[in-house]
Amino acid sequence: MKHRIVVLGAGYSGAVAAGRVAARLYRDEVSVTLVNGESDFVERVRMHEVATGRDLKLRPFEEMYAGTGVELKVAKVTGVDVDRKTVALDSEELEYDTLVYALGSRWNPQGVPGVAEHAYEIASRPGALRLRERLTSLTAGQTVTVVGGGLTGVEFVTELAESRPDLDVAFVVRGELGDWLSPKGRRHLRKVLDRLGITVHEKAAVTRVDADQLTTAEGGAIPAAVTVWTAGFAVHPIVEATSLEVSDTGRIVVDETMRSVSHPDVYAVGDAAYAMGSKNKPLRMSCASGQPMAWQAADSIAARLTGGKLGHAPLFYFNQCISLGRKDGLIQYVTTDDRAVNATLTGRVAAVYKELICKGAAWGTENPTMGLPTRRRHVISQPVPLHEWTS
């Protein structure tokens, strides 16, 4: 009987994990099923571009996985029972021997009144397309207010201001503008926002969102014909209903091989996983974290099933790549545990660099073995027990 591997979610992490593990094993010994709600790959790091009017290249999974042995099921995951080892879909139930959980994250209203009713999000393609439609209806001088000072907020607010100079664009951040960047990086960011005419409201915690304005903790009102909420992400709620061990933020706690610490037949990758990186610091939700996690999980599954050597590549950061519209960018260099150092790359060169990173991430998803020679291995009758593995 084939060993059944089921991968939930086909974002940057799940798509890579499915393709890579399938390339490591013989098709007559394992089945790899990838479950996703959409039939093509979504470049999530480009949703700010979609929202402002750009059309992206379609990347159908049917073409991506042709000849790989990966079976795609376009369906919605409605539940996971890790004790029965089953996955409930909107149309059927799947049984698995090994599960890779990669359902990722979604926008996080953070319990602020009015956000769900009045704000727009760009954490998903449907959300980005809804916002795109709304933006096309705005006339000159109307205000779009973006809430959330992280990478997503910065990229969207600059993209919008550049593509729609006729609008009044505002940016609301809880702390100081770019407070996670180096002094050099903060100066460049502020320079770009000033050039684009973006109004910045710093140290402003939003406590309510209405149809035409925001209210801050200080009691002030900020006008907004459209509010775009980019203030953080939350993991998919399906995990909450399982018996998997999770962190205080609901992410699945995994070991250095991306294996659940509570259920050894479950692996988690991407935004859904709580994994440690350099200096024992949790990896942040990002494409930069997700793809290396997927490589590790796929190779670990293959090694355990075939009795091969269990490798472990340290996961660490090198830089943060930020687009500031189509013509400017900021590459913030960081320590291995993601703390900014006072070294940056800016301007047009940085914009080109960021574009290459985005294209590379998409290419890596379509080519999960990263161009390396692949040696398939046979599944052994009894996978090696967990206690026999060392890192």
Describe the overall structure.
- The chain has a five-stranded parallel beta sheet with strand order 3-2-1-7-19, with helices on one face.
- The chain has helices spanning 12-24, 47-51, 61-64, 115-118, 125-136, 151-163, 183-195, 287-306, 347-366, and strands at 3-8, 30-36, 70-74, 77-81, 86-89, 93-95, 98-101, 105-107, 119-120, 143-147, 168-172, 199-201, 206-209, 213-216, 221-223, 226-229, 233-235, 252-253, 266-268, 273-274, 319-323, 329-334, 340-346.
- 27% of the residues lie in helices and 24% in strands.
- By secondary structure, the protein is of the alpha/beta class.
- The model is unreliable at 386-391 (pLDDT under 50).
- Helix 1 runs parallel beside helix 8 and helix 1 packs across helix 9 (347-366).
- It contains nine helices and 23 strands.
- It folds into two domains: 3-106 and 233-316, FAD/NAD(P)-binding domain; 111-229, FAD/NAD(P)-binding domain (3-Layer(bba) Sandwich), CATH 3.50.50.
